[in-house]
Amino acid sequence: MLMSFIVCYVVILICVLVGVAFLTLLERSILGYIQIRKGPNKVGVMGVLQPFSDAISLFCSEQSYPFLSNFLFYFVSPVFSLCLALCLWLIFPIFFNMVDFELGLLFFLCVSSFGVYAMMGAGWSSNSKYAMLGAYRAVAQTISYEVSLALIILSCVVLVGGYDLLSFGGAQNEWWMVWGFFPLAIVWFSSCLAETNRSPFDFAEGESELVSGFNVEYSSGGFALIFMAEYGNILFMSLISVVIFLGGLGGMFIGKVVILSILFLWVRGTFPRFRYDSLMGLAWSIYLPLALNYLLFSFGACLFFVVVCM
């Protein structure tokens, strides 16, 4: 049983890493069409070998270490970030004999909240002012939007009656959650963009004022690991969004995940970056009250159905 679990998990990790590689190629293709230009997606046969060429180039190039950096945390932070992104896939129960978490969404919230330590460690250990400012921004942004994400998940869990991913599929056989909670789904998607540091909420990597944010001192393999963790989180947030709002793990599941991933990339080529104070005001003044109101609505709807059934 243990060996079967390990083999299945390794297969899923390989699929995720290959998916991350081709997600970068898809992003280049979409941005190329949006900006009416050509790019690496035209090299060879539709640029299929470009992601692997980039990976080989990054991991084989010379690694530079800041002289005054805290070497242990500087080295461990990118590895920790990628490990967290891959650990999230433990709650994915389809196709393989994986562990079916009864509290899968709570596991997701706990593991994703550890990501702030990886960003903080990367910024602090680099001993760079730009990296430290980027880490401060990233931590404040992530913690702010995690509150909204948790409340949105709790609103849906109250109606579904469980934290298991499979229970969301059974509860959405008749109608998808997005039809009843459309404003909440929009807030969820926007919070996912902020949680993964994607445009227009990529303040942790504000090139104009922070050079490159918390990862400014990273190169070669360290930068590649941070990059892979970011795109792995995009894929997983697309998966969770489909499970909660778009019918669960049912039919056309992979297609819906791909469409949501394309939306993540499309937003990057469409919207300009917000101001940082607008980002924080959006989280605490708009998204948090909206999520709390929907949570109260979910409790009221549940209580109403209980009274009617009795």
UniProtKB/TrEMBL annotation:
The enzyme's E.C. designation: 7.1.1.2
Gene for this chain: nad1
Record-linked Pfam families: NADHdh (PF00146)
PANTHER family named among the record's database cross-references: NADH DEHYDROGENASE SUBUNIT 1, NADH-UBIQUINONE OXIDOREDUCTASE CHAIN 1
Q: Which family does it belong to?
A: Belongs to the complex I subunit 1 family.
Enumerate the subcellular locations listed in this protein's record, separating them with semicolons: Mitochondrion inner membrane; Mitochondrion membrane
| Record key words, sorted | Membrane, Mitochondrion, NAD, Transmembrane, Transmembrane helix, Transport, Ubiquinone
Which topology term describes how it sits in the membrane? Multi-pass membrane protein
Q: Broadest EC class?
A: translocase
Q: Where are the transmembrane segments?
A: 6-26, 71-92, 104-122, 143-163, 175-194, 234-266, 286-309
What chemistry does it catalyse, as a reaction equation? a ubiquinone + NADH + 5 H(+)(in) = a ubiquinol + NAD(+) + 4 H(+)(out)
- One term of GO molecular function: NADH dehydrogenase (ubiquinone) activity
Q: Which InterPro entries match?
A: NADH_UbQ_OxRdtase_su1/FPO (IPR001694), NADH_UbQ_OxRdtase_su1_CS (IPR018086)
User: Is the keyword Disulfide bond in the record?
Assistant: no
Cellular compartments per GO CC = mitochondrial inner membrane
* Function as written in the Swiss-Prot or TrEMBL entry: Core subunit of the mitochondrial membrane respiratory chain NADH dehydrogenase (Complex I) that is believed to belong to the minimal assembly required for catalysis. Complex I functions in the transfer of electrons from NADH to the respiratory chain. The immediate electron acceptor for the enzyme is believed to be ubiquinone.
Species, as recorded: Limulus polyphemus (Atlantic horseshoe crab)
A biological-process GO annotation: aerobic respiration
* Protein name as annotated: NADH-ubiquinone oxidoreductase chain 1
